[in-house]
């Protein structure tokens, strides 16, 4: 039984919790968390990243017609190209996503990317 004073838990609740933990272990055993981990390195070369950035600029028409600056998609601010980065929405190793497609990216000021 549950008790307010010492938070003792009934044995049947502990048994049910153990079964839930066991079921979760079975369900997640084959699940590759690195596929969804946004903090791991993508493995893209500098050339591939530059090509992706150029594709985004062209696809979304983010280059200023008056200057050589690029417009951030979050703030709308124009900045030098080296201060704007091409950020993937779904990282490159995500299966089933064409990560090199310009629709999978955003042009963000370097300070905005997480």
**Beta fraction:** 5-15%
Contiguous runs where pLDDT drops below 50 for at least 5 residues? 1-5
Q: Biggest sheet, open or closed, and with what strands and sense?
A: 2 strands, antiparallel
Please list the strands of the largest sheet in the order they lie side by side: 1-2
Number of domains: 2
Compute the number of helices: 2
Pattern of helices and strands: HHEEEE
| Secondary structure: helix percent | 25-40%
Mean pLDDT: 78
Can you tell me the overall shape?
elongated
What would you call the structural class? Answer: alpha+beta
Rg from C-alpha positions? 23 Å
Q: What is the tally of beta strands?
A: 4
Ordered list of secondary-structure elements with their pairings:
Layout: H1 11-28, H2 46-60, E1 69-71, E2 78-80, E3 84-88, E4 105-109
Antiparallel strand pairs: 1-2, 3-4
Explained architecture:
By secondary structure, this protein is of the alpha+beta class. It folds into two domains: about 1-30, no CATH class; about 45-110, no CATH class. The protein has two helices and four strands, in the order H-H-E-E-E-E. The strands form two sheets. A two-stranded antiparallel sheet has the order 1-2. Strands 3-4 form a two-stranded antiparallel ribbon. The protein starts with 10 loop residues before the first helix and ends in a 5-residue tail after the last strand. Mean pLDDT is about 80; it is low at about 1-5.
Which keywords apply here?
114 residues; alpha+beta; two-stranded antiparallel sheet; elongated; disordered N terminus
